[in-house]
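Posting here for the record, re: EPZ.
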Amino acid sequence: MDKIVIYGGKKLKGEVIVSGSKNSALPILFATLLTDDPATIKNIPSLADIETTVAFLNFIGKKTVKEGNTVKAYSSDKYKHIAPYDLVRKMRASVLIMGPLLARLKKVNVSLPGGCAIGARPVDMHLDAFKKLGAEIAVEGGYVKTFAGNGLKGAQISFRFPSVGATENILLAAVLAKGKTTITNASCEPEIEDLAEVLNKMGAKVTGAGTKKIAIDGVDKLHGFTHEIIPDRIEAATYVIAAAITKGEIIIKKVIPQHLKSVNDNLKKCGLYIKETKDTIFVKWIKSLKPQNVKTEVYPGFPTDVQAQWMALMCLLNGKSCVEENVFENRFLHVAELQRFGADIAIDGKTANIKGVKKFSGAPVMVSDLRAGAALVLAGLAANGKTTVSRIYHLDRGYDMLEKKFKKLGADIRRIRN
Ligand code: EPZ
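Prediction output follows.
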């Protein structure tokens, strides 16, 4: 398995271009199943999860090819209605196959996704909502078997928690249901708005995306589309923090600053110089930063996907701070690895209490999940000496050319292929 080796202590300086959003591209790729017309999706990042999804769509019967950063999906004669464990276990977002296939085939059998490093991550809200839309659900042999013989019918759906995936799955199903569907306590993430924009380009009638209340008037048929994926706000936030943790200065390009406002607002409170324009963020470390407490929340609050990266930075600031994780029940797996650099962190339930230390010493560390991996790379970039990061396949799922982009910013970083 590949590793990343870093000799830390270099101040990063230069420009970085943000890739397309993984978490926007995935539901939009699944949306191509809602039509037999061709679709062209641009600004697709080159990531393992994208390759997994393209392979999955081809397995299901939707001919899909990726050429550079563009994916073209073509018509298909016949779709399979089964999503096997060996595909679903690789990527939890595979559950997004349910909405479109229930809408088109009126049936779909999906292997339960299983947990992952950051928690059990059940799909109960997805299934309860499909039932409300008229589907029958049976869980047997590790598969969720769903059937809607009379087709899906619009319904009023309210989520106990604004789940991103459940909101996306219901959008993907309700656009072809008979009648009107409303979703209350919907996820407000930018990726939801991007998906809704695509669905409306296809001829759907979705209103309210980006707010907690979304309405969908079902239509009979959807047509093809061309779309450019929004920039990846989590990747962008990772580079903002990289400038802070290495005391450097970076211009981040092709970004929507509003999408990471909560992160940048908190970093400004720490004393980091940040200047935003319409599509760039200029970050410059000008003085020692003060630690800042954060609590992760759904958008527009502080994103859980930046929690680990933030924690790495807080560990190197003079003073105490705490990070509260409110979205996932087990998203502190990076703490033990940060402690190997010399971090002083004590976990108390859903809160990590951090005491800043003067420096990190490079160490061999292991990635447990995608964003934890980003935190370990950031720690290695700031540490004195050599850091070896293993299990970087997690990183390859969500960061496009990570080590190349950091190398271009002046980091001493390279991938060792094993
Ligand atoms: C999406 O995951 C993202 N993944 C995650 O990004 C992100 O961390 C998460 O949203 C929160 O923002 C993609 O978009 C592909 P949720 P998702 O449903 O949809 C619980 C990354 O690093 N829940 O909003 O799976 C769940 O267990 C990844 O790019 C239920 O209990 O997240 C979690 O505690 C990591 N029942 C909370 O809700 C359900 O039916 C939020 O999950 C669904 C979710």
